[in-house]
Specification:
This protein is of the alpha+beta class. It has helices spanning 4-40, 252-263, 282-286; strands spanning 104-107, 121-127, 135-140, 144-145, 150-153, 156-160, 165-166, 171-175, 212-215, 225-232, 235-243, 289-290, 302-305, 325-327. The chain folds into 2 domains: 1-34; 69-327, Lamin Tail domain (Immunoglobulin-like, Sandwich). It is built from 3 helices and 14 strands. A 6-stranded mixed β-sheet has the order 1-6-5-10-11-12. The chain has a 6-stranded mixed β-sheet with strand order 9-8-3-2-13-14, with no helix packed on it.
């Protein structure tokens, strides 16, 4: 039988043991915390703290070609408004895969780069009727980065911008039919991305020294009813509805893209507002800029042009009661425009 003293000694030993174990546990926790902090403060090869690893890497573009001109009405789908489009964006279901290489060509709506700080481009001049090179001219309203912006014809991407920046009043001419054996493929230069005379007209007669010359592998523009749109992902930067007649039916893809453009306030009737039922058939043609089939058969012929510096997002920006097409001014400001 244990004496009272033995019980006292046993209790004291238990107390000491528990205290010692607590001290060990605390020491282990302190050491673990210090070790984790040391890992977080470790430096990279440049002596700087390691960067976080949860930033998305740039997305690669899938190479493909877009529909032939007579198949452009096949795009389907509606915009989910989430991230990159991949054919399901506000563009109404865009055809094909995104462009690779020089930025020319067509494809689905994939965010190809950083958005400019402002909506910096306007469509300025169009010829969709040339038997050689159809042309679209764009005008920079402000300086900024164009990388990854897209030009759409109806619902199809026909050009994705390569890495380049512009200054106010810079002009860009996009030449169509520059693919292999295309109508504009002979004697063309590479894209001009650093200077407007990077590939001068003296060496490349199709180029315009007053503009950045860029080239699309798309075969050419539709010259009946059309919608040209500059977009970044699902944001419309500028657009124009075009027609060859002030009345008549319009293709479904033209009407679909007109609805996308109108929903973002980038096209209205003259004076504002939308037609009852939207820009459909006669209402499309009556409110579109004219006249696609009156433009020249060569780039030197007539073109559809903005009339001045204003942008009211309607056909009055392009036509008057007596003016539809005018002598072309590629690589220069249009008659009625002044430097910004």
């Amino acid at each position: 039988m244990r004496t009272a003293g033995e019980y006292v000694n046993q209790a004291a030993g238990a107390v000491w043991y528990k205290g010692a174990m607590r001290a060990v546990v605390v020491s282990v926790l302190v050491l673990s915390t210090l070790s984790a902090a040391a890992c977080r403060s470790s430096t990279n090869g440049n002596g700087q703290a390691d960067a976080a690893t949860d930033i998305d890497a740039p997305r690669a573009h899938d190479a493909s070609t877009h529909d032939a001109p007579d198949g452009r009405d096949s795009g389907t789908g509606s915009d989910s408004g989430t991230g990159s489009d991949a054919g399901t964006g506000s563009d109404g279901g865009l055809d094909g895969g995104s462009d690779g290489g020089t930025g020319s060509g067509s494809g689905s709506a994939v965010d190809g780069g950083t958005a400019p700080a402002t909506q910096i481009l306007r469509i300025n001049e169009v010829n969709a009727n040339a038997t050689s090179c159809d042309l679209v001219e764009l005008r920079a309203i402000a300086g900024g980065d164009l990388t990854g912006l897209r030009l759409l014809e109806r619902k199809t991407i026909v050009f994705t911008f390569p890495a380049m920046t512009v200054a106010p009043d810079d002009l860009i001419v996009i030449h169509f039919g520059a693919g292999p054996n295309g109508p504009c493929s002979a004697g063309i230069s590479a894209n001009e991305t650093t200077a407007k005379t990077e590939f001068p007209a003296a060496a490349f007669p199709n180029n315009y020294d007053g503009a950045f010359d860029l080239f699309s592998t798309d075969a050419g523009l539709v010259a009946t009813d059309n919608v040209l749109t500059i977009m970044r992902t699902t944001t419309v930067i500028d657009a124009v509805l075009l027609s060859d007649d002030a009345a008549g039916t319009a293709a479904g893809d033209s009407e679909d893209q007109a609805a996308v453009v109108a929903a973002q306030g980038e096209w209205t009737m003259v004076g504002g507002g939308l037609p009852a039922g939207g820009f459909i058939d006669d209402a499309f043609s009556a409110n579109a800029a004219l006249d696609l089939d009156a433009t020249g058969k060569t780039p030197a012929g007539a073109s559809i042009q903005r009339l001045d510096n204003t942008d009211d997002n309607d056909k009055a920006d392009w036509n008057t009661a007596t003016t539809t097409v005018q002598p072309s001014t590629w690589g220069a400001l249009n008659v009625g425009q002044t430097p910004l």
